[in-house]
Amino acid sequence: MARIISLLFCLLLGFIAISTRAADPATAAPTPAEVSTKKLNNRYLPENEVKQITIDNQPYDLLVRPWEGKKKLGAAIILPATNGTADAPGLMAFVRRNINPAGWASLSLTPPTELPAANFATAATEVTSPGAAQLSSPSNKPSPKIKPEDNSKHLQEQEDFLVQSMSQLDAVGADYAGKRILITADQSAGLLISLLSQKKIADPDVLIVINPYREDEKLNQALAEQLAKLTLPILDIQSPDGHPASLETAANRKILAVTLKSPNYRQTSLALNLDNESAWQNCLNAIKGFSARMSGAQ
């Protein structure tokens, strides 16, 4: 009897602790206002470096660093990989901070988000039942992150987000007259290539894409032709450790550019390991040299 009473007492204490934790504001689910505030997550930076743009009545960070030294060539617009921040650690943040002495101001945008992975749950009553249907995805392909019915809607939201972001740069970049180079990576690069091919955003003077790809296989295969048909100077940087979807189209991107006689297309292979700053410096050198030469802003 004493053991039963002791067990009931422990269960009661546990229930009280859980209830208290749920009521604690520090551990409760974030409110919509708190979620919105998380988009503005660069408070550690100098105050004059952090600007905001507004998209669908929500503020998003735009990080601005002026050019340094005597050269004043223009501005580098930087769009990090999706689901990141305007100052996501790694190569893009390194470029943002170190391209300024070469005469380029840097305007770093908050990238669009991805949908969370779909939760294809199985009801408990069905766990022991033999499968009535098989998976729709091939066994040698990863399971889709997004349900098909949500995919088109979300892709449109990503494109709209980027179009609105880019449309607000003129006012912020007015202090940095000159050429415009656009530097982007991964899925963000794939999205921007698509927008440029559809003429939904204005062409920059120079486009730099790093490991470009799309999550959707059909859209990913279309990237090579979209990129090759652009008439602006393009530096296509591919790293051996890039996303498999980017590596899959790398050869075709180069072949099509040659076939369509794109005179301003260059593809280069660089190792871009996340813990290798010397590789980042090599990438920055390639960006600076190509941008100055192809924009005529030397």
UniProtKB/TrEMBL annotation:
Domain of life: Bacteria
Keyword Oxidoreductase: no
Record's keyword terms, sorted: Signal
Keyword ATP-binding tagged: no
UniProt-annotated stretches for the region Disordered: 127-155
Biased composition annotated in UniProt, kind: Basic and acidic residues: 146-155
InterPro entries the UniProt entry points to: DUF3530 (IPR022529)
Protein name (Swiss-Prot/TrEMBL): DUF3530 domain-containing protein
Species of provenance: Shewanella baltica (strain OS155 / ATCC BAA-1091)
Taxonomic lineage from the root: Bacteria, Pseudomonadati, Pseudomonadota, Gammaproteobacteria, Alteromonadales
